[in-house]
Amino acid sequence: MKRSMPIQDLLELGLRRLMQATVVGGLVLAAVVPAGSDAQERVLNLYSARHYQTDEALYADFTKQTGIKINRIELGDEPLLQRLRTEGAASPADVVLLVDAARLWRAQIEGLFQPVQSKVLNERIPANLRSNDGTWYGFSSRARVIVYDKARVKPEDVDTYEKLADPKNKGRVCTRSGSHPYMLSLIGSLLERLGPEKTEEWARGMVANMARPPRGGDTDQIKGVASGECGVALTNTYYWVRLVRSEDPTDKAIVSKVGFIWPNQATTGTHMNISGGGVAKNAPHQANAVAFLEYLTSPKAQSYFADGNNEWPVVKGAVTDNKALSALGTPRMEDVPISTIGKNQIAAQRILDRVGYR
Ligand SMILES: [Fe+2]
Prior knowledge:
The protein is of the alpha/beta class.
C-alpha cells in the first residue's frame, strides 16, 4: 500500500517542482530572447553626422542582411554631440557616426562612447585608424587636398599647405571656416609637424591671403575657384571626386577649369582623415550596435564607402569600381597619428582665435 506523504513533504516537493518549472521556463525563454531587448527589438538607433545621401544603400543593406531596422537621426557634428550630452543616460543612441578625427576624439574624451571588444573590428581596421581603447573605429578615409585655378595659378606655387600662406598667394586663398573639424584637423596636423610658432605664422598668412572671408563648404570653395573668385582652395577628396563623376554640364565645366594637387608630396605627405564611429555610452541595443559596426567593415559596406561617397575603404583588400577615385592614384600620405590630430584641436582653435581666422 502506498504510504501517504506528510503534508510538509508534499509542500516541499510542490515548491521544488514549481522552482524547476520556473528554471526550465526561464531557460526556454532565454533561448528565444537571449540578450534582453536586443533580440526582442530588431532595432538600431543611429546618430549620424555623415551627410552623404549615398549612405542610404549602406543602411538598407544592413537591414536586409540582419533584419535590424535602423532609426536614424542626422545632425551636424557639434549639434549631434550636444544632443548626446543633453540626453545623457537616457539617450536612445546605439551607434554614433562622426566625420572627422577631431570630433571622434572629442566624443571619446567626453565619455560618449563605450569600449567595444570585437575581434572582427580589431582584425579588419588598422590600429592607426582606431582609438587605442576600443571606443571608436575609422571605417573610411579621405584626404584634404588643394585645388587651384588653372588659368591664373601655377601649380608649383600652391603644392604644399605651407605655400598657401606665402605672400605670393595674397588675395588668392578661399577657405571654409577655420573652426570646422576638417580645418581643425589639418591645423592639428601642422601643429604636430611644424610646432606652435610656425603653425600660428601659417594661420596668420592664410588670413592675410584670403580672397574673401571664410564661408560655405568644400564644394563652394571648388566652385569659387572655377568662377575665378578664388585662386586656390582646400577640399576633401570626396567632394572633388563627386564633381568629377557628375554628368551635369555645370559640374563638368567646373572640373575643366580647376586643377587638383596632392599636397606635400615632396615633403611630409598629404593630410589624411577618417569617418568613423562607436557604440554609444548607454546603447539600449548594444549587440545590434556591435553588429552594425562589424557590418561596416564587410567587403560590401566598404565598397559602398568608395562607390557611393568616394571615400577610401580602410579594410585591406576591399575593392572598388570607382574609376574616378582610383584615377587619383596612391599619393604619399602623412604619418601623423589620427589620435594626435584629434588631441591638437584645442590648441588649433586657440591659434585661429588669436589670428582672427574665423
Ligand atoms: Fe564632408
